[in-house]
Amino acid sequence: MSFIIDKFKNKVSTLPKHKSWLINHDIYKYEGFWYHQGFWFHSSASFSIEITMALQEEFQAQPTNILLASHPKSGTTWLKALAFAIANRTTLKNDTNSTLIHPLRTTIPHGCVPYIESESFFNNPCYSNELISTHLPYTSLPKSIITSNCRIVYICRNPKDVFVSFWHFVNKTKGDNSPPLDLEASFESFRSGASPMGPCWDHVIGYRKASLERPDKVLFLIYEDLKKDPKEEVKKLAKFMGYPFNEDEEGDKEIEEIIRLCSFEQLRKVSKENRPGAGATPKVIPDDAFFRKGEAGDSVNHLTMEMIQILDKITFEKYDSLDISF
Ligand code: A3P
User: What is the DSSP string of 109-169?
Assistant: First the structure.
C-alpha cells in the first residue's frame, strides 16, 4: 500500500491537521471530515485518508451493489448482520434441517460484508459482492456509487451513545496496556468534530438529506428504532433491499428467525467462539470488541450531566427539521 501513501503525500501535506484522540497520531481534514493518515490502524492503511482518495479515483460501484453506510459505532455490525441474513435467507431456512450452516453462525458480520476502505478489499475488490459497506461520509463517496444508482442503507445512532461506544472500543483495541483514554479530552475532540470520520453530526446529515432527496435509493435507519421495533424495521430494510417478506405467518416467522440470528446475544456468542478465520479484517481487532452492551442510552452511565447537555444541544441544533429522533 505504500505506493498509494506516496501518491497522495503532497495532497495530504496541505490539509489542516489535529491530534487524534484515539492514538498519538495526527488526523487530517479532508472535504469537511477528519481522517487518519497512512498506516495508522494496527499497521494497516485501512480507513486512511489515502485509501479514501484512491477509492474516489478508482472505485467502480455496480448498480446491483447495496452499500451499508454508517459513522463508526452506530450499529454497523448489526446492520451488516441483518442485511446479510435478509439477502441469504434461503440458507437460514435450510440450516435448521441440513448440514448447511448459515455463515453468521460461525463468522461475525464484518467477515460477511467487507468495508470498501479496508486494505484487503482495495487490493482485491470483489465487485460482485452485492453487499458492501463504508464509514465514508456521503459527500466523499466515490462518484460511481452515486452514478451507478446503487442502493444505500445508512444507520444512525444517538451521538451520546456513539461517543461512549467509540471510547470503549478504542480502549479495548488500542493494543497496549496503557490506562484508558482520558474521557474528558476524548469528549472534547468528539464534541468539536475533530474525531475520525467526524463531525459525527455532519456525517449523519449528509446521508439524511440524501435519503430525503432520493428515498428510493437511500434508506435511513435509526439504531434506537431497531431496538424498539425490530420487526417493522427489518421489514422496511428487506423491502428496500428488494427482498420483501410475505405478508403472512410464514413471512413473520422468517423475520423472527432473522432477528434471533442477528441478536446481540447470538452475535456476541459467535464472536467469543473464536473460530479461525471467523472475524473481521484486520484480524488484530478481537471479534468480541464489536459487542459490548448493545443497549440504547448507556451513555448516561458514563457522561456527566454537563457532557450530556452539550451533546444534546448540538444534536438538537444540527438535526433541526431533519426529523431524526432517538
Ligand atoms: P455499545 O458499545 O454501546 O454496546 P458498530 O457496529 O458501528 O461498531 O457499533 C458497535 C455498537 O453496536 C456497540 O454498542 C455494540 O455493542 C452494538 N451492537 C453490535 N451488535 C449489535 C446487535 N446485534 N444488536 C444491538 N447492538 C449491537
Answer: GGGTS-BTTSHHHHHS--TT-SEEEE---GGGS-HHHHHTT-EEEEEE--HHHHHHHHHHH
Q: Other C-beta atoms within 10 Å of 260: how many?
A: 13
> Could you tell me the distance, in angstroms and rounded to a whole number, from the CA of residue 131 to the centre of ligand 1?
19
- Of 82, 154, 165, 285, the residue with max ligand 1 atoms within 8 A of its CB, to mutate for a pocket test, comes to 165
Closest CA to 290 of 259, 268, 275, 263: 268
Give the residue, by CA position, lying nearest to ligand 1 atom 12: 75
Rounded-to-integer distance, Cα 190 and Cα 206, Å: 18
Classify the C-alpha dihedral 189-193-197-203 as positive or negative.
positive
Catalytic residue numbers? 135
Question: Tens of pLDDT along 110-163?
Answer: 999 999 998 888 888 887 889 999 999 999 999 999 999 999 999 999 999 999
Q: What is the pLDDT of residue 303?
A: 98
Rg (CA), the chain: 19
Q: Return d(Cα 280, Cα 105) in angstroms, integer.
A: 14
Would you call 73 helix, strand, or coil by DSSP? coil
77 C-alpha to ligand 1 centroid (Å)? 6
Say which CATH superfamily domain 2-275+283-319 falls into: P-loop containing nucleotide triphosphate hydrolases (3.40.50.300)
